[in-house]
Structures are given as C-alpha cells and as structure tokens.
Write a structure and sequence with these properties.
Shape: globular
Distance between the termini: 47 Å
Helix content: 25-40%
Pfam family, one: Aminoglyc_resit
Protein name: Amino acid transporter
InterPro entries: Aminoglyc_AdlTrfase (IPR019646)
CATH topology of one domain: Beta Polymerase, domain 2
Organism: Falsiroseomonas oleicola
Length: about 200
C-alpha cells in the first residue's frame, strides 16, 4: 500500500482521539503543541497534526483500537506500510495513521521508551521522572505530557511555532517546571537562549 502525500493532514482533535482511546487500559498521552493547549485549557494556535505517545507494549493494542486507520512506519523521512498482522519492529519510533478512504492522515503516534511507572525522554533516557508527574489529565480526562517536558522537545529545533509555544507557556510555568526545564536545557543544550529566560 502506498502512503498518502505527506502534506495530506486533517488530524483528529485530542477529544476525537480520547473518544477512541479513553477506555483503553494502557498508557497513552498527547504530546507536542496540542499537549500545551490541553494544559492551557484552550487552543492557542492551529495544529497541522496530532501527536501522541505510547509505550512499545501498547503499539499493537492501539493499532487494533484504531483499526479504521492504515499505519505507516516513519523512518529517516520515508513512510512504509505496516500491515495489521505485522508486528512492529523492535526499533520502531513513529507511526502515522492514515484514513485512506478519506485521503487524510489523522494521527502521529510516537513510541516512548520508559516504563509504566517511569517516563523517559526519547533523546536522552538519563532524563526520567515518575510517569504520574510527567503525564497529566485535563478536565475531560485526556492525558497529555507536562509542559516542561513538551518544551524540552521543542527546544532542539526552535521553529517559529516552538518559540510561540514557549512565549505562551513561560508565564504559566511554576517554579519546579522552570527549574526542571532549565536544568535539562543546561545539560542537553548549553547556551540555549531559553535558559536565561527561565
């Protein structure tokens, strides 16, 4: 099966994903810009996709629940179809879910390498924290990655949207969130401009 064009996104909202995964007895949570908006309590900007994360043990269960989608492995900028009966590769990091009939990508599934008890940063697994602190829920029960953790991901690229997300989040971060993010940036991105602002 051939993938859709990479720019053919009409992503679900976090609420639409939660409607499908909300009763699933496994760890999953929204990441990226949408996670920050769930923390803010309202949408602050347009989002071109919907990113969420699962643990490796949850990949197949998630694919089964979202069987309306066709899944494609994302590797080094290439998309490869992963058939429903094919097990995920051990080194899988990312899957896009396509609503092929409608002609749109709906979700971007990330694979996190922590444990049910511990959240781990995918780019440096020495950065860890209890999952109960890393994953929060909004008033509707949708799980999302905590803001400092999201901003750590965004700090690497500092795209225009990442800068806007940091600006919007900075006044709302509490003391511990600012401290955690500053320490992480000092360790991974010495000299980063956000450090002095934290």
């Amino acid at each position: 099966m051939n993938p859709l064009p990479e720019d053919s996104w009409d992503a679900w909202s976090p609420d639409e994903l939660h409607a499908r995964l909300g009763r699933w007895r496994s760890d999953w949570y929204v990441v990226g810009g949408w996670a920050l908006d769930l923390w803010h309590g309202h949408q602050t900007r347009a989002h071109e996709d919907l990113e969420f994360a699962v643990l490796p043990a949850g990949i197949d269960g998630c694919r089964k629940i979202l069987s309306e989608l066709d899944f494609f492995e994302v590797r080094e900028g290439k998309l490869s179809y992963l058939a429903p009966n094919a097990g995920p590769p051990a080194d899988l990091w990312q899957l896009w879910g396509a609503d092929t009939a409608a002609g749109f990508w709906r979700i971007d599934m990330m694979v996190e390498r922590g444990t049910p008890e511990v959240w781990a940063y995918k780019r440096d697994r020495s950065i860890q924290m209890p999952r109960a602190a890393a994953v929060r829920r909004n008033e509707l029960g949708t799980p999302y990655l905590a803001p400092a953790n999201v901003l750590l991901f965004k700090a690497k690229y500092r795209r225009e949207k990442d800068e806007r997300d940091f600006e919007a989040a900075l006044p709302k971060l509490n003391f511990q969130e600012k401290l955690d993010l500053r320490l992480w940036l000092e360790a991974l991105h010495p000299g980063h401009e956000w450090i002095t602002r934290l």
